[in-house]
Design a protein that fits this description.
The chain has 296 residues and is an alpha+beta fold. The chain has two domains: 7-127 and 268-287, Rossmann fold (3-Layer(aba) Sandwich), CATH 3.40.50; 130-264, Probable inorganic polyphosphate/atp-NAD kinase, domain 2 (Tumour Suppressor Smad4), CATH 2.60.200. Helices cover 19% and strands 36% of the residues. It is built from six helices and 19 strands. It starts with 6 loop residues before the first strand and ends in a 9-residue tail after the last helix.
Length: 296
């Protein structure tokens, strides 16, 4: 078998059940059986039986590898994706939790599926990320990327937020709500879905804006181009506790005179799926669609 990827990175959720066994099994298969170069993310090294493995922090993994395998759930995959996107390194997801939308290789088939991918049998897919900027007094004080969503939300206050949204400099609306979700197609099956947003196919160049518990019930989700620049500001004149969350990373104590700018990140993430990957099948299984019906 001709192997297309010579240096493989391993990253995972270290507190996941059976992580040690799966990590060691994948490492041994790649390193000993296939004789490939394997680099393990620093925090996973203690979970390997071979503690002499090459390793580096996650921030350097993308620059040292041709392919990275994420072992865990969708959250672990998101963490890896945010770090890897600047390096144009493809990522493969091995699922250790419940059925995920991003991690589609089960532990009992990991060796077979990884061998197929290494040999070029895979379905490639690009997903774009978002970049959020907090602008204060004309200066960018914080930036953060997100693969699922950027959320502007109240934190430790009982009061609603009063938000104003512009798209490409054009006023969209003002709203009183608990917050606003700006979601990629990848994130449309996450927080945005629980807020009543639509499911977007992952290949669409679109974003969905979903209000969180809006005071006005006619304030509905809206789908816009992924190339849009979104500006969110606060309308209220007294300071309340609010935050911006990018996936699972929170930017705390956002001020009412701050501007939140959200744009598409220029560097996408490349995902390699097994050849039998089917997004609609994942939807049916995850959301329990068509239960009891034969859809073959």
């Amino acid at each position: 078998m001709e192997i297309l990827f010579k240096t493989i990175g391993l990253f995972g959720k270290t507190n996941a059940k059976d992580y040690t066994d799966i990590l060691s099994s994948i490492y041994q298969h790649l390193s000993d059986e296939l004789e490939l170069m394997v680099i393990v993310e620093d925090q996973s090294v203690p979970y390997l039986t071979n503690s002499q493995s090459d390793h580096c922090p996650l921030s350097e993994l993308g620059g040292n590898c041709d392919l990275v395998i994420s072992i865990g759930g969708d959250g672990t995959f998101l963490t890896a994706a945010r770090s890897l996107s600047p390096h144009d390194v493809p990522i493969v997801g091995v699922n250790l939790g419940r059925l995920g939308f991003l991690v589609d290789i089960s532990p009992n088939e990991v060796a077979v599926k990884i061998d197929e991918i290494l040999g070029g049998e895979y379905l490639p897919e690009e997903r774009f990320l978002l970049r959020a900027k907090i602008v204060r007094n004309g200066q960018i004080i914080r930036t953060q990327t997100a693969m699922n969503e950027v959320v502007v939300q109240r934190s430790t206050t009982a009061s609603m937020l009063e938000l104003k949204t512009h798209i490409n400099g054009v006023f969209l609306n003002s709203q009183r709500s608990d917050g606003l979700i700006v979601s990629t197609p990848t994130g449309s099956t996450a927080y945005a879905l629980s807020g009543g947003g639509p499911i977007l196919h992952p290949t669409l160049n679109a974003l969905v804006l979903v209000p969180i518990n809006p005071h006005t019930l006619s304030n509905r989700p809206i789908v816009i181009s992924s190339n849009s620049t979104i500006e969110i500001t606060f309308c209220q004149d007294k300071h309340i506790k609010s935050q911006v969350t990018c996936d699972d990373l929170a930017i705390l104590d956002v001020r009412i005179d701050d501007r939140i700018m959200i744009e598409q990140e220029p560097d996408p993430i490349r995902i390699l799926h097994p050849c039998n990957h089917d997004f609609y099948e994942t939807l049916r299984a995850k959301l329990n669609w068509s239960s009891g019906y034969n859809h073959s």
